[in-house]
Amino acid sequence: MKRTLAAEVPGRTGDRVLLKGWVHAIRPLGGIGFLVVRDRSGQAQVVLEGQDEFLRALPEASAVVVRGVAAAEPRAPGGAEIRQAEVEVVAKAVPELPFEVNHPGLAAGLDTQLDHRVLSLRHPRQAAVFRVQAELVRGFREALRSRGFLEVHTPKLVATGTEGGAELFAVDYFGRRAYLAQSPQFYKQMLVGAGLERVFEVGPVYRAEDHDTSRHLNEYVSLDLEVGFLDGLADLMDLEEAVLEDMFAAVTSSAGDALRLWGAATPRVRGIPRIRLDEAAAILDRRHGHQIPEGNLDPEGERLLAAEMERDHGCELVFVTHYPASKRPVYAMPDPADPALTLSFDLLFRGLEVTTGGQRIHDGETLRRRLDGRGLDPEAFAPYLEAFQYGMPPHGGLAIGLERLTMKLLGLGNVREASLFPRDRGRLAP
Amino acid sequence: MKRTLAAEVPGRTGDRVLLKGWVHAIRPLGGIGFLVVRDRSGQAQVVLEGQDEFLRALPEASAVVVRGVAAAEPRAPGGAEIRQAEVEVVAKAVPELPFEVNHPGLAAGLDTQLDHRVLSLRHPRQAAVFRVQAELVRGFREALRSRGFLEVHTPKLVATGTEGGAELFAVDYFGRRAYLAQSPQFYKQMLVGAGLERVFEVGPVYRAEDHDTSRHLNEYVSLDLEVGFLDGLADLMDLEEAVLEDMFAAVTSSAGDALRLWGAATPRVRGIPRIRLDEAAAILDRRHGHQIPEGNLDPEGERLLAAEMERDHGCELVFVTHYPASKRPVYAMPDPADPALTLSFDLLFRGLEVTTGGQRIHDGETLRRRLDGRGLDPEAFAPYLEAFQYGMPPHGGLAIGLERLTMKLLGLGNVREASLFPRDRGRLAP
Predict the structure, then answer these.
(1) Which residues of A touch B92 (CB under 8 A)?
(2) Whether residues A184 and A60 fall in one domain
(3) Is A94–B389 a contact, with Cβ atoms under 8 angstroms apart?
(4) Quick one: how far is CA A268 from the chain centroid?
(5) B130 and A196: CB-CB below 8 Å?
(6) pLDDT of residue A164
C-alpha cells in the first residue's frame, strides 16, 4: 500500500491508509486511547480501542507504522483521525527521554538541547527553524539565478587567508600548512574577472575567533555573491534589497506555518534606510550619549541604531555605509570623496549585523600597493592578483550570515539555535 | 542607459545599446575593424570604422563598455551587430596572455589551464563546464525538494571520521584535534532519525588520499541524500533514477548550449540495469578473462562492465549491488540472505563510479557490536549512536560526486577539469 503522510489524512477519509512516523504523544484513556504520530508533514491522531496495555508499554519517540481507516472527526487536529488501527513498532525508543519533546515549550537549556540535537529536533518548533532556513537559502539562490548569477563551489582548503590576519584554522595538508577559508572572497572576485561576471556561493566559512558570544559561530554558512560591472555601492544595496525580498517571500510562501510557530513576521525590505557610519555615530552620541568605538559599531550601538531607525523610518533593517579603510579588508574600494573611507556597508537586521558588503578595488596595482602597505607580501597573493591582469571590471559583493539571518527572523536568543550542529570553542560534537 | 546583454542585441536592432564585457577577439581589417565582446550571456560583434590604431593597441581580454546602435547583419553571429560604436576600456589586460582563449581549442596543458584558471575560464567551453555543473546541482535540489526532502547544512569540522580509517585531514581546533569531514554520513543519518526524515546536502567533503589519478580530488562536492522509512534497496535505486532524470533535464533545458559546446548528450536513466557484484565479476571473467580484486571493481573492471552493459542493455549507467560487508563502511546494512554481503550499490556512469549508496543498519545495538568488531571504540561514536535510541526507522541514502558526474557527462579527461579550483596532493592554489 502506498504511504499516506499525516497532512494528507484529512483528504483520505473513508480510505484505508498506511502511515509512517514517530510517536509524538500517547493518551491511554481506559478502553479508548489515542496515539499522535508525527512525520515530516505534520501530525495525525490514531484511535486504538482496547489497547491500553500496548499504549502504556510504548515509549514515546518510537518509530511506528500504522494501518487503519481515515475518518472525519471534527475534534481531531486537522478534522480527521485514523480508526481501526493496527500499530507496528519498527524501532522502539528508550523508555526515558532526556527531555520531553511534545509539550509547547522545550524544558531543556540550550546546551542540553544541542547535546541531544537528535531529540530536540523532534520538537516541531525546533524543526521549524531549519525549514525556514532552507527556504531562505532557496530564495537566495533563485533570486540570484533569475538575475543571471551562476552558482559556484570554491575550495575551503586554501593557502592564504582573505581577511589578512590571524583567526585562521590550520590544516595539515600532506605535510604542508593549509588553512580553512574565512570566506570565498578572493575566489568570487577571481571568478567575476574570469568572465563568469556574476557568481554566488552557499557554503561553510571558518573563523578561529576566540569569541564566546550568542552571535558568533566558528563555522557558519555564508551566502556570498559577487557582481561584475557594478555601477556603484547603491546598486549593490538595491540588489541586496531585491534578494532579501525574494528570500523572505520564499519563507512566507513555503514555510509560513514554521514562521507562525515562532510568532515571527518577515520585515519590509524595500527602501531600507542608508546611513553613513559617521552620521550614525553622531545620532547615537546626540540622542543617547553613546560613543561607538573608532570606526565600528559595537553591539550596543547596533541595538540603539536599530531602534532609532525603526522609530524614524519604521524599518527593522538599516544599511550603515562608509566604514573607514583602516577597519575594512585590504580589497575594500576607497571612497573617491574621502580615501580614508570605503565604499562599503553592513546591513543590520533587528540590531544585528547580518551582511557585510562593498565595492572592491579593481586595479591590480592599487591592490598590490595596499597589500604592501599592510605589511602583506603581494607575492603570497599572486594567484589572486593574477585575476587583475586580464581586465577586471568594477565589481562588488556581499556575504549574508545564514544563521544570524535565521536567528533574527525568528527571534531566537542565540545563533547556535539556528545551526543544526553548531561549532564553538567548546563544541565539536555532536 | 540600461545595459544590454550580448545575447539581447539581435532583439534590439535599431536601438542605441550599452554593452559591457570583455574583448574576445579583435580584427582590424584596414578602415573597418571588428571587436567581438563577450559577456555572461554570449558574444556580440562590434563594428569600428577608422579605429585600426585603437584596435591594434587594445589587448585582448580587456574589460570594455561599448555604446552604439544595434543593427541587423546576417553575416554577424546571431544576425546582428553594433555599429556607430564608441568603446571605453574600463580595465586594460596585459599585452601578452599566457595562452589564447578565443580559438576553438585551448592550446594549453591541463596544469597550465588550472594555474591560470582566471584566464582559461574565459574560454567559452571552459565556462560551459560550470554552467552544466550548476544546473546539475539545481536539478538535484529541486528533484529532492519536490519529494519532501529538506536541505541541511552540517559541519565539516568534526571530532571523528565516518569511514573509520585514515585518510582524514587534521585541524588544530583551539588546541584540540579535529578533522575535516569525509562525508556528512553520520549527520544525515542522525537528521533522518531526528524526525526530518528526508534530508539532502550539497557541500564539500575531504579525503586525504594519496592518490594522484585523473579520478580523484582531495576536496570535492558531494551531493548527499538520506531517506527514512525506506522500503529497501530497490526503492533507493528507483529514487536515484528519478533524481538523475531531473538533474539531466535541468541541464538540457537550461544549459543545452553548454552541452552542445562539448558535443555531449545526457544518458537514458530509467531502467538502469542492476547487477550484483558477484554476477558482474562472473561476466568479466567469462567474457574478458578479467579478474576483479576481492570485493570491488578495479578501474579496468568498471570500464569493461560499462561496455558490456551498454552492449547488452543499451545503457550508459549500471548499478552494481551487494558489495561484501568487509569492503563497505561499518554502517552498511547486511543482506539478510547472506550477511557477508550488504544492501549497497555503486552507480557507474560511462565506466566510472559516480555514486555510492545503500541501506544502513538502523538497530543501535547491531551498530555498536559492528563498531566494536572493527576495533572502533563505540564511545567515540556516542553522539552518532544516540540517534539510534529514539526510534531510528529503516533508512538509506547515497552520495553523488559532483565533479565526477560532470566529467563523465561532458566527456572530460580529468576530474580536475570539473572543479573550478581543484585540490590535489600538489595543488593548493589558486
Answers:
(1) 391
(2) no
(3) yes
(4) 18
(5) yes
(6) 58
Shortest alpha-carbon distance between residue B272 and chain A (Å): 23
Mean pLDDT of A48-53: 92
Average pLDDT over residues A406-421: 98
Residue of B nearest to A99 (CA): B390
* B90·A394 Cβ contact <8 A: yes
Is residue B47 within 8 Å of B81, Cβ to Cβ? yes
The whole-model pTM stands at: 0.98
- Are residues B301 and B154 part of one domain? yes
Q: How far is B239 from chain A (nearest CA, A)?
A: 15
Distance CA A293, CA A290 (A): 10
The grid coordinates of residue B136 equal: 546539475
What residue in A sits closest to B118 (Cα-Cα)?
A: A194
Instruction: Please give the full DSSP string across B159-199, using - where no structure is assigned.
Output: SS-SSSSS---EEEETTEEEEE-S-SHHHHHHHIIIII-EE
| Neighbouring-strand partners of residue B172 | B177
Give the domain extent around A24. 6-91
Residue that is last in its domain, among A72, A91, A110: A91
In a shared domain, residues B246 and B357 = yes
| Residue B75 sits in the same domain as residue B170 | no
Same domain membership, residue A78 and residue A170: no
Q: Mark yes or no for CB contact A219/B155 under 8 Å.
A: yes
Nearest to A134 among B130, B150, B393 (CB): B150
Q: pLDDT tens-digit profile of A124-148? A: 999 999 999 999 999 999 999 999 9
> Using CA atoms, how far apart are residues A27 and A32, in angstroms rounded to an integer?
9
Output the nine-digit C-alpha cell for B127. 565556462
CB contact under 8 A, A91 and B134: no
Q: Do B391 and A117 touch (CB under 8 A)?
A: no
How does pLDDT run across B282-292, given as a tens digit for each residue?
999 999 999 99
Q: Are strands A317-321 and A334-335 parallel, antiparallel or unpaired?
A: unpaired
Work out the average pLDDT over B266-287: 97
ipTM, two decimals, is 0.97
Q: Does the structure show a pLDDT above 80 at B31?
A: yes
Asked whether residue A1 is assigned to any structural domain, the reply reads: no
Q: What is the CATH number of the domain that holds B74?
A: 2.40.50.140
| Per-residue confidence (pLDDT) for residue B165, from 0 to 100 | 61
Give the per-residue pLDDT at B162.
67
Q: Closest Cα of chain B to A314: distance in Å?
A: 32
Contact between chains at B191 and A121 (C-beta distance less than 8 A): yes
Inform me whether the pLDDT recorded for A4 exceeds 90: yes
What is the C-alpha to C-alpha distance for residues A241 and A238, in angstroms, rounded to an integer?
A: 5
Q: Which run of H or E residues covers position A205?
A: strand A198-206
CA distance B287 to chain A (A): 41
Grid cell digits, residue A392: 577586471
* Tens digits of residue pLDDT in B321-370: 999 999 999 999 999 999 999 999 999 999 999 999 999 999 999 999 99
Name the closest residue on chain B to residue A37, using Cα atoms: B195
Among the candidates A49, A72, A91, a domain finishes at A91
Rounded distance between C-alpha atoms, residue A207 and residue A38, angstroms? 38
**For residue A317, what are the CA distances in angstroms to A226, A302, B23?**
21, 11, 40
- Tell me which chain B residues have a C-beta less than 8 angstroms from the C-beta of A198: 40
How sure is the predictor about B163, in pLDDT bands with cuts at 50, 70 and 90? low
- pLDDT per residue as tens digits for the range A188-220: 999 999 999 999 999 999 999 988 899 999 999
